[in-house]
Amino acid sequence: MNSLPDKALLPAGMQDGLPPAAALEAATAERLIAEFDAWGYARVKPPLMEFEENLLLGTGQAVANQAFRVQDPVSQRMLALRPDMTLQVARIAGSRLSNSPRPLRLAYSGQVARVQSSQLRPERQFGQVGVELIGATGPEADIEVVLMAAEALQAAGVNNLSIDLGLPTLCPTLLQDLDLDATTYATLRTALDRKDADTVAQLSDKIGEDVTKALIAMLTALGPATDAITKLNAIDLPVLASAQRAHLTAVIDGITKACPDLTLTLDVVEGRGFEYHTGVTFAVFSHGVMGELGRGGRYDAGEPATGLTFFMDTVMKAVHPSEAPDRVFLPFGTPADVARKLRAEGWRTVAGLDNTDDALHGAQRLGCSHVLQNGTVNKLDT
After folding, report:
1. The pTM is what?
2. In the CATH scheme, what architecture does the domain 12-318 have?
3. Angstrom distance (rounded) from CA 24 to CA 349
4. Burial category of 18 from C-beta neighbours within 10 Å (exposed 0-12, middle 13-18, buried 19 and up)
């Protein structure tokens, strides 16, 4: 494999970031981090690899099948390449920052790699940017993270946002006291994911009439959040499930009051992709963009936590490409102090490195928008 085509060949799901897209993604990630910083979230930088048993145990089991593994020649222990950064930040909070005051607000940005791709995300390596709010139990924490997600994306130039709220613990809470065999539970879970009320009704003899009635009613409690939560609040639920619903209601009320123009939807039955979450969840979408821009929600990090992760490969589909920046061509021999002065004024300079091109031809060949002529910056005639 010595030919140029072979050297350019990359594994499936891996790709080179080229200009100007790579620069735009980096700038967008930094803009998101800057917005998080404005909300009081301090940046951390987890390592690319960790010991397998530290990274993938506990809640990390949810992504264990997505991790590349390699043996460390120093310790002879297995390492895992991170498939997600959320759990790393939770580890940092529970170890190195265990004595820091709570609630603890942390932000992160970096690359992750996964063993398998999906139909919506063919990339196996992509950037993540996110936050973790650790040590807060009330609905105010969930409200803060959702509002910050919307505000950060809007600041980065993403419009037409919608937030899809969920409560994936509600159905399992209703079912937890039932002695269901694995086959029945799997059938019921699939029916709920597919919004299949008929199959749920057919299982009434195993789950009971009250639970059946509640689940079927929950299947209709979806759509615009204010309407859906009204339907959900009309369902007769046991104490623990009712407490979860009250938390969700407070979250919806808080978001709606703070940002009434934000499109907010609700689906309390959907649980796919939120297997390790323990409360209110959310997914972020932008009209016209396929797939989630990000997702988050409440989980157990050894202490209560609410997180948010943006998937930069999808986010960039919603960010409008910026115009090519102005670049000025400096003819061969341009004094260094002149070049420094132009850069100090905000110009991007491209220096001619030999005297074979005339200035205009060199500027055009290298994609410059301006050229330095007789000490004056002139725009190229396009």
Report:
1. 0.91
2. 2-Layer Sandwich (3.30)
3. 19
4. exposed
Position 40, amino acid: G
Residue range 211-226, pLDDT digits in tens: 999 999 999 999 999 9
What is the rounded distance in angstroms from the CA atom of residue 268 to the CA atom of residue 220? 10
Whether 111 contacts 127, CB under 8 Å: yes
Q: How far apart are CA 213 and CA 216, in angstroms?
A: 5
Helices (H), the chain: 4-8, 21-38, 52-55, 86-94, 139-155, 170-175, 182-193, 197-202, 204-207, 209-220, 225-233, 239-258, 312-318, 336-344, 359-365
Residue type, 69: R
Closest C-alpha among 154, 348, 162, 179 to residue 262 = 162
Structure tokens, 55: 């990274």
The structural domains of the chain, with segments of one domain joined by +, span 12-318, 327-379
Start-to-end CA span in the chain (Å): 42
Which residue, among 99, 90, 105, has the nearest Cα to 58 in the 3D structure? 90
Q: Which two tokens stand for residue 154?
A: 């809007």
Taking the C-alpha atoms of residue 253 and residue 227, their distance in angstroms, rounded to an integer, is: 12
- Helices 225-233, 239-258: axis angle to 10 degrees equals 160
Query: Hey, what are 367's tokens?
Result: 């994609």
pLDDT tens per residue across span 15-71: 999 998 999 999 999 999 999 999 999 999 999 999 998 887 766 677 778 889 999
Contact present, 85 and 128 (Cβ < 8 Å)? yes
Among 330, 326, 327, smallest CA distance to 373 is for 330
Contacts (Cβ under 8 Å, ≥6 apart) of 85: 46, 108, 110, 112, 128, 130, 309
CA distance 234 to 210: 14
